[in-house]
Write a structure and sequence with these properties.
heterotrimer; A mainly alpha (398); B mainly alpha (336); C alpha+beta (178); A: 398 residues; mainly alpha; 3-stranded antiparallel β-sheet; 17 helices; disordered N terminus; C: 178 residues; alpha+beta; 5 helices; 5 strands; 21% helix
Chain lengths: 398, 336, 178
């Protein structure tokens, strides 16, 4: 398209000229669209690979991604602002909804931060029950990942097994807290209620079922040659890059970084009293992330059993005033949540409501590596990499 | 084929009857496969029950689905190439219906008995590529286009091992005629699956790829391309694609049964007996279900390959293996 | 023993699940998939939720004093309470008449409710209870506003509180008789 065309047409009247320019623009656009090297593929906001409303704008050359950019915020619910107009007990029920598959774990760091400010400490029995439910939330969360990763790669059966066996865990959580997804069980200074009779024995049998499920996944998914072909060497995160992007949780441990806040953090929960192991994998690819999470699930079942065996007796609530006014101050608590490190920075001015709450969620940081990771991969690998990074949309857009 | 009835029929009457039988021969096994394997076996393998409300154990679910698809709006995307978009499902369906023509169901029960039967079947089956490409292009959607092109690449790559895997059988039977191949297996004293087990394995894998089923379902790939070339289809046109996909599965299973499992014959039973014309189709159906079971079992269990891995598997593993199989078969054929 | 290829192991897993589903009683029992499957045919068969399950809120209105604590603590303000004071007859003959809070209106809008349980928790007079009943969907969203009598009807479905696990320091509460 040279400029000669346009200068030749300049004499004709304006209307026609405008139409001509518009037509040229349409032509140019069509040409751009037909060029294979510049095809822009809009993945999402509604797309099965994004399980939620994440949007990824990918520039493709054939099947190869030149540049991919995740666009977040389609599900932003303004929780940080909402917490400023809700009292402390009410915030617990809000933060349930951040990472909605492992929601018990969301409450704990917030409650710990508030307890810090109020200078109360929950009695040991409450801390142990918290830890047990925390780990069961982790199991319920990661089981979903174990099935979902396989279904993103085309193996539909694994996800049904995951939902089947996850149901047992959710039932156990429900029979204690009353809520399958949104327990709202933590109170400042303890927990709402004690365990119902018969729960411990039943939970132990459920933990056995979860371990059977892990064995099944090892046979059905991890051992499968096609799965390994699809995952090994795909989306490799070197440890240094992972740290630089602020990854946490299993994503970082799969890159060989031996860092787990349950062991390394100054947590008041019962982890320090348990005998367990932090799993790492040296490869840093999608397969390593799947493998590390699978081992973590199995480890968590043993942790829950240890907690139930060694549960201390005693009260479950510390002495806390009925109307909770948190003294002025600042506190930051982070814990190792199923998706990675989750932290709450709570500023209080001594009122019924927090002055400001900054929520650090794991998925948000984990997603930030996506543009770096997606460069140069094939379109099917987008699904693999996104699934293996394992984000929950509510955890990104809180 | 209608000789046993001993009625003289005009050519048009016979054509109509053959047409109806053809429709039944395609739709009945398709429905059976979808119900048995896709609805029930898949559900049982995933610890659930599948459709249960329509009829006992959901047996009428297919009719309900059919009614549902008929009621749906026939949507054309705004920028679609309307003619290409509308015609694509019919192209795919025609290739499916032409496949069934050469299948022998008994000593005399064939639609057409041509000497190059297997050659015809394999040639006709590749026509569906054009339909899928048309669907991918006509939808004016990037996902569909990617899916259509992936399908084209995949189907062309797997046409070759499919043909080569059959060559071993053809060498052993010394014929391209499907009826001859069946008779040869009966005379030979064993089904060709025993001497041609490599051929059978290659045939199964290639059929899986031809059907674009997991682990070779990149053209549809729900998690990446949102069912690829089917993305924009709805209602009756989607139904046609659906029927074509599973009818092809049924027919390829039947072809596999004919080539490797002795077709409509039963061991130690006279293959030329008159009653085989009536029992034959049932025997063939039973063997077809056996092979379809394998195909669907793989479908349920495996995740899918990536496009480049699939091509590598076809060109670097399956085609050399198929060629080796042919060479060995030919040497043994001459030597023995 | 050489290692089995992973793809065959995968086939074994699905086949095993198939037989477990179809023959839950072992290989020689008659097939019974509806027993072997983990799913439940919902409208025909119902699973009983645990006793603590938060299904619907029941109101024991004799205990309610219209103190408004629940309405104030509710995170999304879906409880509407109106009441007035009236004089009740004296307890002893010759005494002064007592002042009593009478409940006029107690509505919970379940279209807004988040089922967090804070209202049940803060109630100082044991007037609110959780019932595990979950089938109360409506065609119109306005019908999800349950009034005093409807919330009172749920009291029948409130189960007794379960006993505690050994080592617990709590006392089991009682549900008041309706």
């Amino acid at each position: 398209m040279t400029t000669d065309h346009i200068t030749a047409e300049l004499d004709i009247n304006d209307n026609e000229q405008l139409r001509y320019i518009a037509a040229q623009a349409v032509d140019a656009r069509v040409n751009v669209e037909l060029e294979t090297e510049g095809m822009t593929l809009n993945i999402g906001p509604q797309h099965p690979a994004t399980h939620g409303t994440l949007r990824i704008v990918a520039k493709l050359d054939g099947e190869q991604v030149i540049k991919a950019e995740p666009i977040m915020g389609y599900m932003h619910r303004g929780y940080e602002k909402l917490t400023e107009v809700r009292t402390y007990p009410q915030v617990t029920t809000l933060v349930n909804r951040i990472d909605w598959v492992g929601s018990f774990a969301n409450e704990v760091p917030f409650i710990l931060a508030a307890e810090d400010l109020m200078e109360v400490e929950a009695p040991p029995r409450a801390q142990w029950i918290r830890t047990a439910l925390f780990e069961m939330g982790r199991i319920a969360n990661i089981m979903l990942f174990l099935g979902d990763m396989a279904v993103q790669l085309g193996g539909v059966t694994a996800v049904f097994y995951a939902f089947r066996d996850r149901e047992f865990v959710l039932n156990q959580i429900e029979s204690v807290t009353g809520g399958r997804f949104h327990p709202n069980f933590n109170r400042i200074g303890g927990i709402k209620d004690d365990l119902p009779a018969g729960w411990i024995a039943e939970t132990k049998s459920v933990m056995q079922k979860v371990r059977d499920f892990c064995d099944e996944m090892e046979d059905l998914v991890v051992g499968n040659e096609i799965f390994q072909l699809r995952c090994r060497g795909v989306g490799v995160i070197p440890a240094e890059v992972g740290k630089a992007y602020g990854l946490s949780g299993a994503n970082l441990r799969a890159s060989g970084v031996d860092w787990d806040l349950r062991r390394d953090g100054d947590s008041r929960l019962a982890w320090k009293d348990l005998d367990w192991k932090v799993w790492t994998h040296p490869d840093g690819d999608s397969f390593a992330r799947y493998w590390v999470r699978l081992q973590e699930t199995r480890e968590a079942t043993y942790m829950v059993e240890q907690i139930l065996d060694g549960l201390p007796t005693g009260p479950i609530m510390a002495k806390v005033p009925r109307i909770i006014k948190v003294p002025a101050g600042e506190s930051y608590v982070q814990t190792e949540n199923p998706l990675g490190v989750m932290g709450y920075y709570v500023i209080s001015k001594g009122e019924l409501t927090p002055f400001r709450v900054k929520i650090r969620t794991a998925s948000f940081s984990n997603m930030s590596i996506a543009p770096w990771l997606l460069e140069g991969v094939y379109v099917p690998d987008i699904a693999t990499i996104l699934a293996s990074l394992y984000f929950i949309l509510g955890d990104i857009d809180r | 084929m209608l000789t046993p009835l001993a009625i003289e029929l005009a050519y048009w009457q016979e054509t109509i009857i053959k047409g109806v039988i053809g429709l039944v021969a395609v739709l009945l096994p398709t429905g059976a496969l979808v119900y048995l394997f896709l609805f029930k076996m898949m559900s049982f393998m995933q610890s659930r029950l599948g459709p249960m409300e329509t009829g006992p154990y959901g047996q009428l679910q297919l009719l309900a689905e059919f009614g549902k698809f008929l009621q749906k709006e026939d949507i054309f995307p705004a920028k679609a190439d309307r003619f290409v978009f509308a015609a694509a499902p019919f192209v795919v369906l025609v290739s499916t219906f032409m496949l069934v023509l050469v299948l022998p169901g008994g000593p005399d029960a064939t639609f057409i008995d041509i000497n190059t039967g297997i050659y015809f079947a394999l040639a006709v089956s590749s026509v569906s590529v054009i339909g899928i490409l048309m669907a991918g292009w006509g939808s004016a959607s990037k996902y569909s286009l990617l899916g259509g092109l992936r399908a084209a690449g995949q189907l062309i790559a797997y046409e070759l091992p499919l043909v080569l895997s059959v060559v071993g059988v053809v060498i052993m039977a010394e014929s391209l005629n499907l009826s001859d191949i069946v008779h040869k297996q009966n005379e030979f004293g064993m089904w060709f699956i025993l001497p041609q087990f490599i051929g059978f394995f290659l045939f199964l894998v290639s059929v899986q790829a031809e059907l674009t089923q997991p682990p070779f379902d990149m053209p549809q790939a729900e998690s990446e391309l949102v069912t690829g070339f089917l993305t924009e289809y709805s209602g009756i046109r989607f139904l046609l694609f659906f029927i074509a996909e599973f009818a092809t599965a049924a027919i390829f299973s039947a072809i596999g049964a004919t080539l490797f499992l002795g077709g409509w014959t039963i061991p130690f039973v006279d293959a030329n007996a008159e009653f085989m014309n009536y029992i034959g189709p049932l025997v063939l159906a039973a063997k077809m279900i056996l092979i379809a079971f394998l195909i669907f079992w793989f479908r349920i269990t495996y995740p899918r390959f990536r496009e480049d891995q699939l091509q590598r598997l076809a060109w670097k593993f399956m085609i050399p293996l198929a060629l080796a199989n042919i060479v060995i078969t030919a040497i043994l054929k001459v030597a023995l | 023993m050489p290692k089995m290829p992973g793809m065959l192991v995968g086939l074994r897993v699905t086949a095993k699940t198939f037989f477990k589903t179809v023959f839950p009683g072992g290989p020689f029992s008659p097939p019974a998939p509806s027993k072997g499957a983990h799913t439940v045919q919902y409208p025909h068969v119902k699973e009983a939720p645990p006793t603590r399950a938060r299904g619907v809120i029941a109101l024991h209105d004799d205990n309610c004093t219209a103190c408004m604590l629940c309405a104030r603590e509710c995170p999304d303000w879906c409880i509407y309470i109106e009441g007035h004071k009236e004089l009740a007859p004296p307890r002893r003959a010759g005494g002064k008449p007592r002042q009593k809070n009478k409940l006029d209106r107690f509505d919970i809008d379940f279209a807004l409710c988040m089922f967090c349980g804070i209202c049940v928790d803060v109630c100082p007079f044991d007037a609110l209870f959780w019932s595990p009943e979950f089938e109360f969907s409506e065609m119109r969203i306005a019908d999800l506003l349950h009034d005093k009598s409807r919330l009172g009807d749920w009291m029948e479905t409130v189960p007794e509180f379960p006993a505690y696990e050994s080592g617990a320091d709590q006392k089991v509460r009682k549900v008041p008789a309706t």
